[in-house]
Amino acid sequence: MVLVTAVAVSNLEKDYGKVKALRGVSFQIEEGEIFGLIGPNGAGKSTTLKILATLLHPTGGRAEVFGHDVVKEASEVRKLISYLPEEAGAYKRLTGLEYLEFMAKLYAKDSRKAEKMLKLGIELSGLGERLNDKVSTYSKGMVRRLLLARALMVKPKLAILDEPTSGLDIMNAFEIRRTIKEFSKEGVTFLISSHNMLEVEYLCDRVALIHKGRILEVGTPRELKERYNAENLEEVFMEAVKNV
Ligand SMILES: Nc1ncnc2c1ncn2[C@@H]1O[C@H](COP(=O)(O)OP(=O)(O)OP(=O)(O)O)[C@@H](O)[C@H]1O
């Protein structure tokens, strides 16, 4: 099997004024992988994801998505990705169904494809009858499911998901993880950020530990646990930060 590089991040730096959010971040993701970027609050996860989603310009370094530079070829990159932001709440005046319909029409090349996309979005949202209610009446978890359905119904080559299960109850989080695994089998590549290390351990093929804008370790959960003689990724992380 020929490995295709989905994401190549090399020495990425991002300053917000005096704050150095990223201090030389590098990692690669192969096509079809579920890759987890994990670390504590303020580590630089969202910043890395936003740069890959073409929403932020890096201060230094490079990032490519399927060989396209995220700065110089941003419009090419946007055709290949879906991005789920950490905090999102737009389109409150629409019903969930109207929102999915609007997005399907925007993304699909013809009306038949839009229908198919919408059907998938409805199914993925799991919102049933509530899709007919305005988004403003949804709980945080319901909004999350709607946005995730939107992100996946377009079948992106790369899905960039910032804390996809944050704020969701156990059942919803379980469903989301199952959907991610299913889509991965169909060839969608995932970059997921999380500070829930146990969830990531279950879900991800490989993970990168990020702390204070630097990558501390990259590997499969099993490799990292062996490297640190640890029971789980939480223990790996606690050991890894000791050496910083
Ligand atoms: N717009 C901004 N202006 C100034 N500083 C920012 C801005 N966005 C992020 N930062 C800072 O950059 C650093 C990295 O933030 P980032 O949001 O990437 O972390 P994170 O790992 O996603 O954290 P969390 O898990 O809390 O979302 C933090 O110190 C944060 O305060």
From TrEMBL:
Statement: the UniProt record of this protein carries the keyword Translocase: no
GO molecular function, one term: ATP hydrolysis activity
Sequence ranges assigned to domain ABC transporter in this UniProt record: 7-237
Keyword terms, alphabetized: ATP-binding, Nucleotide-binding
Keyword Nucleotide-binding in record: yes
InterPro entries tied to this protein: AAA+_ATPase, ABC_transporter-like_ATP-bd, P-loop_NTPase
Pfam families, alphabetized: ABC_tran
Protein name: Atp-binding transport protein
Source species: Pyrococcus abyssi (strain GE5 / Orsay)
